[in-house]
Hints:
The structure holds two protein chains of two kinds. Chain A contains 14 helices and 21 strands. By secondary structure, chain A is α+β, with helices and mostly antiparallel strands. Residues 1-12 of chain A have low confidence and may be disordered. By secondary structure, chain B is an alpha/beta fold. Chain B has a five-stranded mixed β-sheet with strand order 1-2-3-4-5. In chain B, helix 1 runs parallel beside helix 2. The radius of gyration of chain B is 12 Å and the shape is globular.
Amino acid sequence: MDLIQQLLPVGEGDAEERRLLLLAEISQAFAGALDLDITLRNAVEKVCAYMDSEAGSIFILDDSGQSLVCRGCAGPVDITGLAIPAGRGIVGRSVRDNVVVMVRDVREDPDFSGAVDAKTGFVTRSILCAPLSLQGRTIGAIEVINKREGDHLFGPLDRTMLQVLASAAALAVHNARMAIGLVEQERIRRELDLARDLQRSLLPAECDEDCAITGVNLPAREVSGDFFDHFECGEGRTCFSLGDVSGKGMNAALLMAKTSSLLRCLGKMGMRPGELLTRVNNELCDSATRGMFVTAVTGIFNSATGELIWANAGHQPPLLRGRDGQYREYAAAAPPLGILPGVEYEEQRLFLDEGSFYLFTDGVTEGRDFKGGMLELEGFTGLLDQNAARPARERIDAVVKHIQQAPLHDDITLMVLESRPHAGLKLLDKLRFVADPAQLKRVRAAVRAAAQASGFAEEVTEHLILAVNEACMNVIQHAYKGDAAGEIVLEILNNPQRLVFRLKDYAPPVNPAMIKSRDLDDIRPGGLGVHFITTLMDEHRYLPHSGGIGNVLEMVKYKTANGAA
Amino acid sequence: MYDVTTSGRYDVVYLKGDVDLSCSPKARESLLAQLSTGRPLLVDLSGVTYMDSSGVASLVEGLQTAKKKGLSFALVAVSKPVMSVLALARLDKVFTIYPSAQDAPA
């Protein structure tokens, strides 16, 4: 309900009160408004109505500060959108000098420009114009034209009123601008969140402890130009890749997603690493943004046999930490992807035998600690040494934590490949028997069956039978000291890399240090058993027995080294 | 018990089957009993399907006992698996081994 209509009765009422109420209403309208143009137009209409003026308009300085644009008007002539050079005319003077300008009679003011009147046919007689000020800056002005009543000229009361209204209007403009800014920020943030979620979905799924490949990717900002990936590609092998896109921000992130997807798709088709990079390189040269390129390493890893093949396109050389703790870098000469078409990428190969193969982006070696010093290769290998005994996931987390001491300047991506000899051990057979030598025949038959199932040749099979038989004899004779009631359990386990025998008894624990091999030159009956076990098995050790009762002897025979499948 | 024959001046004991911890006491007994007759001994291993360290120990004890008595003691017709066990124990050079009883010196 329009307050003004309520309060403009037939000449009665307190003018001051009406004025205040109008002020309140307009201020409220301004306060709640977010759509600036609608608000300004409504406000001008109300102001005109109250001030009983024939026309009115509100001008706001544009972004360049060179023009004043009419953003709302009321009266017979619609000049919304009209732009006048800043500083021109009455409005211009008001804005430039930040003063209220009252021109009682325009015919007497040289600043008045009759140009608009000439075009529109409107006759301006009297103008009242107040500047809109915000945080010390003048952003525009509101003007009312031609007082309707009386002598058609504006007076001091009008001047005051308009000044007050101008303040409210200025505040409204400010709020509307802030609101627009916030909405825009919110939109950008939502888009970045979406991009980050998308990128995270491109990362490989988390793997359990038995995984041969462990990796981490931490973007420095919302989106990352680094990536890593790994997936099964049949026959116990895993394909992997890791890369770094030049530049930062959305462009880099998009190229990252494209490259990572191409490598995954072609990798799943069984393509070898060298050819894979050749194809992806040609594709990126064809279609990627000029000036952007990707460094990458891609390869195939068989964690059971330890065989690793890979190809490198201009990326930081992978680092091998051998079983002995020695480091070796594998440099390559080929260029990054996306620069030169037709490049042939050479494959490199090694057998990972209890070593660890690290792939990483320069965010790692250029990462900083709290003192601001760069990690460098030396610092990196130092951290790896310190954490060598820990499982892969913990080791990687330790490195990342060190670099996170300072805010990330660059994305961090780090991946490690390790063979998993004990992974996937499956129970082939389990025998329970008493400590009676007559049972040994049955044990030997079970060992023969397991050895043959694993593909060992006859001679090796004989050796395995001999060793396990001897181990059982030791339990019967020494652990149980001939007590034929003692219980013995033999478990036979298997994975692509090894055949494992675990022999358990429930006799008092034997001190492994007391079990020594016989000196063969001292020919005496007995004592050969341990010699057979140590010679014929690739590994043997005593394991802790659950519950602390009895002994567990584990004996391991490697498959590939001994000609098995 | 195990079969025993003669071949010239030798007694021949035929060890048979699996000579493992369950049977090696018997094998040991046989060898020592035969040696107490005072004649040189040949141990025929052609019928042995498996031998473990206790079986080997019995042979070693036989050899040592024979030596003490001044008797000759040899193994004949040693199969491949038994040979490899002896080799593993580095006893293949310690025993006198003949392909057959006929090859033993008369």
